[in-house]
Amino acid sequence: MKRKWALAGIVLAIMTLLSGCEPLLVLNPKGPQAQRQADDIMLSIGIMSFIVIAVFALLAYMLIKYRASKQPADYEPPHIEGSKVVEAICIGIPVIIVAFLSVVSVQSNNKVEAMPKGYEDTKPLVIYASSSDWKWHFSYPEENIETVNYLYIPTNRALEFKLYSYGPITSFWIPQLGGQKYAMSDMVNTLHLAADVPGEYMGRNANFSGKGFAENTFNVKAVSQDEFDKWVKDVKATAKPLTEETFKALLAPGHVGQSTYTGTHLPFMPAPEGEHAGHHHGSSDAGEHSGHGETSNSHQ
After folding, report:
1. What is the separation of C-alpha 15 from the centre of its chain, rounded to a whole number of angstroms?
2. Which residue of 110, 133, 164, 231 is most buried, as measured by CB atoms within 10 A?
3. What's the pLDDT score for residue 72?
C-alpha cells in the first residue's frame, strides 16, 4: 500500500513540474526557417507515434490470440510456412517511411539553407557573428557597429549571418529563429534567418568548447525596422569606438557582459574569407593566398 502511495506521489510531482514548463523553444518558432524545422519535427513525431501505436496494438493482438493454453499431451502444433505478404509488409513499410523522411529532409535542408521564403527580393541585413572563449561578437559592417553578447535585429527582414570563430569550433544557434550552424577559425559559414515576430529570444553556442561553454550565450532582441534604425542612431551618438587593443582584450578567455561600440573589428582583424581564408580550392595563386590565410589564423 505504501509503495502505491509513493508511486502516486512521484507521478503527481512529475505532472506538476511538467505543467509549469514552457514549451520547447524549437516548437515555438518566430521565423520562417524555424517554422519549417518545427513542422518537420512534428511530422516525424506523428509518424513515429503512429508506428509505436501500431506495433503495440499488434503486440497485444498477438499475445491475446496466440496465448498459451492447455493442450493434450499428444498435441502437435501445425506446420506453418512463412508468408510472403507479411514479409513484404515488414520490409516495405520501413523502406517507404525512410524514403519519405529522406525526401522531406532534403527539401527542408534546401529551404532552410536558402534565403527565407518571402524575402528573396529584399536586401538582407549582413551581420558577422564571431565567437571567442566564451563570448559572441556581432559586427554590423553597413551600420559600422559592433556588439558583444547581444543582437539587435529588425523584424520582417532577411538576416545573413557570416559565422566564424577566434577559438575552437562553436555552433551559432537561435532556437526560435532557425537551426544551428558551425563557426570555425579558418572559414566563414553563411546562415540565413529572419524574425517575423518582435520579441526577445535566447541564443547560444550549441557546441561544447571548454569550461565556459555553459555561459556562452547571447540575447536577441527583434524590433521593427524603425526601432532598429533608431537604435543605430543612438549607438553612433553614444557608444565608444572599438579599438584594436580593446578587441584583443575581449578575445582573452573569460566571460564579459554586454557592450556596444562604434566601428567593427573587421578592418584590423578581418573575417577568414577571401584572401584571409584558410581554404582556397581551385585558386590559381592558392599558394600565395594560403600563406595569407596562415598568417591571419596565427594572428587570431
Report:
1. 29
2. 164
3. 82
pTM (predicted TM-score): 0.78
Instruction: Count CA within 13 A, CB hemisphere, residue 39.
Output: 14
Interatomic CA distance for residues 272 and 291, integer angstroms: 13
Q: What is the pLDDT of residue 12?
A: 59
Degrees, nearest 5: CA angle 24-199-255? 80
In angstroms, the Cα distances linking 67 to 61, 75, 76, 79 are 10, 16, 16, 18
C-alpha grid cell for residue 189? 559559414
Angle, CA of 25, 27 and 33, to the nearest 5°: 95
CA distance 257 to 116: 31
Distance CA 98, CA 106 (A): 12
Collect contacts of 197-203 with beta carbons under 8 A, ≥24 apart: 197/30, 197/31, 197/155, 197/222, 198/155, 198/222, 198/223, 198/224, 199/30, 201/30, 201/174, 201/175, 201/176, 201/177, 202/25, 202/174, 202/175, 202/176, 203/136, 203/151, 203/172, 203/173, 203/174
**What are the respective helix, strand and coil percentages of the chain, to the nearest 5?**
40, 20, 35
CATH number of 125-295: 2.60.40.420
Crossing angle of helices 84-113 and 32-65, rounded to 10°:
170
297 vs 37, higher pLDDT? 37
Tens digit of each residue's pLDDT (9 = 90 or more) over 198-215: 999 999 999 998 898 898
With a CB cutoff of 8 Å and minimum separation 6, the contacts of 236 are 144, 145, 262
Residue 93 DSSP one-character state: H
